[in-house]
Amino acid sequence: MNINQDSFLILFDYISAHSSTPLSDEDKLFIKELFVYKKIRRKNFLLKQGEICQYSAFIINGSMKQYYVDSMGKENVINLYLENWWVADRESLLGSKPTIYNIEACEDTEVLMISKDDIQKMGKVPALNELTKTLDMNHGIAMQNRVNNAISLPAIDRYNNLLKTYPKFPQRFPQHLLASYLGITKETLSRIRKQK
Question: Residue 40 pairs with which residues in a beta bridge?
Answer without folding.
Answer: 109
